Amino acid sequence: xxxxxxxxxxxxxxxxxxxxxxxxxxxxxxxxxxxxxxxxxxxxxxxxxxxxxxxxxxxxxxxxxxxxxxxxxxxxxxxxxxxxxxxxxxxxxxxxxxxxxxxxxxxxxxxxxxxxxxxxxxxxxxxxxxxxxxxxxxxxxxxxxxxxxxxxxxxxxxxxxxxxxxxxxxxxxxxxxxxxxxxxxxxxxxxxxxxxxxxxxxxxxxxxxxxxxxxxxxxxxxxxxxxxxxxxxxxxxxxxxxxxxxxxxxxxxxxxxxxxxxxxxxxxxxxxxxxxxxxxxxxxxxxxxxxxxxxxxxxxxxxxxxxxxxxxxxxxxxxxxxxxxxxxxxxxxxxx
Length: 336
Description:
Shape: elongated
CATH class of the largest domain: Alpha Beta
Oligomer: single chain
Number of strands: 10
Strand order of the largest sheet: 1-5-6-10-9-8-7
Structural class: alpha+beta
Strand content: 15-25%
């Protein structure tokens, strides 16, 4: 092809591309199209200069250099003009703060709560939150824990004002309020902080998180509860996780059921985290007690339901391999 013809074609194409770019502002891509080291149109033509005859080198060498400089200058000037027009545009508010750079990462508890909320929303649950300073009525009485019941001592309650105002010892208090204030069908989960008078160690703390779930409707059975928990645990960990269910006593449910998973730290061989049992208890659950339904204003002859409560801190520890619950609140934590 004639060299002059190629030069004219590149110039014509460049001017057409520059005209369009003045409207879009995409000057970086225009620059790369003509001056990329590997595929720029003007650059490739300059690379062919050594192949020219001596006569063509003298004729086209200075011309190609002028074209390169002219095109680069045209791009730069058009870019400055475009940016100036953008700044002066009445549609742009220069006082609007720039979006800050994203730094850090979510706390593992926040990560797990969001993941669990998404899971249960998919299965038709609503997500609720409520007060952390609670009354004895909703923390104990409506949950089938009468005055002087031994289980109230086991909770090691932290009172704000004795004998009726306390820091909630479990998220079951939210369950009691939901059952009292809403009519079936009910399908709700609630994450939140709870407080107990406990000495901090590797697996316990006076401040931790729970995740409560409650379902009430006609015809709800223990099989519905078992299927819900099993599906959830396999979602959170993986389908190969070992799960066992066993009978356990909880005053607010009857019958009660505990769920354990095979220890993810030792593979079931026994370690400090699982207290050498090979299993880690992750939640307590059961069919809502007849008396609980009745005290919350729901007819237990018509409706049945199940509830569960799980310690989020323990779930986070087993999922992310954090061996000490105190590391969750100590700062400088790294997890995968």
